[in-house]
Amino acid sequence: MNSEKTFRLYNTLTKTVEPVIPNEPEHLRFYSCGPTVYSYAHIGNFRSFLTSDLILRTAQAIGWRTTYVTNITDVGHLTEDDLSDPSGEDRMVKALRSKEGRRFANIWDLARYYANVLIEDWHTLNLREPDVRPRATEHVRQQILAVEKLMANGHAYETSQGVYFSVESFPEYGKLSGNREAAELEQTVRDVVVDPEKRDPRDFALWKKDEKHLMQWYSPWGWGFPGWHIECSVMSMEYLGEQLDLHAGGEDLIFPHHECEIAQSESLTGKKPFARHWVHTRFLQVEGEKMSKRLGNFLTVRSLVLPESEGGKGVDPLALRMTLLSGYYRKPFNFTLKTLKANIRHVTRFREAAAHVAAALVAGAPGEDRLGPRLDALYEAALDAMLDDLNTPEALAKTLEGVRLILGFKANLNEASARSAQAWLDRTNALLGILAPEGEAPAPLAPTADPLAEKVEALLTERQAARKARDFARADAIREELTALGIEVMDTPEGPKWRKMIRV
Ligand SMILES: [Zn+2]
User: Fold this and answer.
1) Exposure check for the chain: N or C terminus, fewer CB within 10 A?
2) Alpha carbons 413 and 403: distance in angstroms, whole number
3) What is the reported pLDDT for 64?
4) Are 279 and 246 in contact (CB under 8 A)?
């Protein structure tokens, strides 16, 4: 179709805007880092997911095939894996221990709940579904195999606390973020794990030994859980092959997360470039301030779009989407009430234009097409803007010009013009997703298999049977066995419920 068009995007790796050149012509295979499901994702996270959605739509608009993978992190993301957060707890465990977390029976429930919320919000914002949405907990075996391979080829080593990637073994470490000086690197990954046996402070964890962790798997290094960075290397290569065309995420992921992904992946594949193009979305502020729970300006999708009767603000989700894409992804975005209101008006005008066109199609007035060529030119201009490093402000401006053009015809829009207008609305919606929601909401995720759950469930069934048979000695013995496993049993009217006790 539009194969003569060039899709250009800024590449963090080369620091230039350059053409996206898929390995297989006209088939874009890309990976975008998804959220850690320990809480509701905020609108800043969604701005980054929106960038990936726009990459997908723009590629499809020029007739490319796409394979789009975005993950769910449901284990292993420690609070100190990011620089801003001072402690080294697992984010999921911390969430379970919080007031909000008390309503979950166990950590698997918490992960599933927030993952389902994420998928709902995703759909609410009219983000297209990825081809695969892998979860870290379902790829632990592959992560273990990757760590074994890194150890075998001299890129990783074991200590009494875990397995680490040896940064010294990968001289190109730092090529994405520009953090090349040892001091810089040490500072930025400081104390991700305090382990005196680490050979180099820059080394980062691939596997953490921890028999008390709420989510643990058996590995060649004993019970424990994988590090955060290895999951994205493993899941992206599992579904996209050893070399990706493009890898996207929020700017906060450039270092350490993406830098570590490159080191691991290229060490696994023998230095084949892991991702050709790296795309990062700048941060979002609210009314000029950093979003934080403490400042009370922490905005989630649902805090805005739920009806007021359910504690939200009743904002039209498409107006929220339009607001988020009204700023260029490569500039910090200031989310303000004023911008939101302006976009609520734009969405209303869009709907008016659609209603106007629908009415004109029913009326069927004769006459020549007076809109087609002008709207086609506006669509091409909007598409060109998207192909030019996702210039969404320009694409939106061209689109609003089209809306004005349609509404300018008032009551005398003839059928031929209305047909062109309808075609333009459909194409524009496919490109930007701001007129009408697409598709059905995806089904909620099936429960994840907890390696411990099977054992616990079997013991509980046996305990119920023992109680029924009035064999209280056996029932008590089973309870003790469960306690020894760190399981707390709560007898409820619907039967026994259990959770893994949190050891502080
Ligand atoms: Zn990632």
Assistant:
1) C
2) 13
3) 98
4) yes
Among 28, 122, 135, residue whose Cα is nearest residue 317: 122
Span from the CA of 389 to the centroid of ligand 1 (angstroms):
22
Shared domain check, 300 and 184? no
| Degrees, nearest 5: CA angle 238-243-244 | 85
What distance in Å separates the CA atoms of residue 399 and residue 379, rounded to the nearest whole number? 7
* pLDDT confidence of residue 228: 87
Domains held by the chain: number: 3
At residue 281, the 3 state secondary structure works out as strand
Under DSSP, the state recorded for 88 is: -
Q: Token pair of 447, please?
A: 């429960």
Same domain, 207 and 298: no
For 123-149, what is each residue's pLDDT tens digit? 999 999 999 999 999 999 999 999 999
Last residue of a domain, one of 281, 316, 339: 281
* C-beta separation of 396 from 386 below 8 A: no
Task: Report every protein residue that has its C-beta within 5 angstroms of ion ligand 1.
Answer: 33, 232
Whether residue 63 sits in one domain with residue 112: yes
Look at residue 447 and tell me if it is in a domain.
Answer: no
CATH of the domain at 330: 1.10.730.10
To which residue do tokens 């760590």 refer? 147
Q: Which domain holds residue 458?
A: 453-500
In angstroms, the CA 365 to CA 368 distance is: 10
What kind and span of H or E run contains 476?
Answer: helix 472-484
How far is the C-alpha of 285 from the C-alpha of 298, rounded, in Å?
10
Asked if residue 64 and residue 23 are part of one domain, the reply reads yes
Summarize pLDDT for 316-340 with one digit per residue, the tens.
999 999 999 999 999 999 999 999 9
Q: Do 276 and 358 have their domain in common?
A: no
Quote the ligand 1 centre to 228 CA distance (angstroms): 8
Q: What is the pTM of this model?
A: 0.86
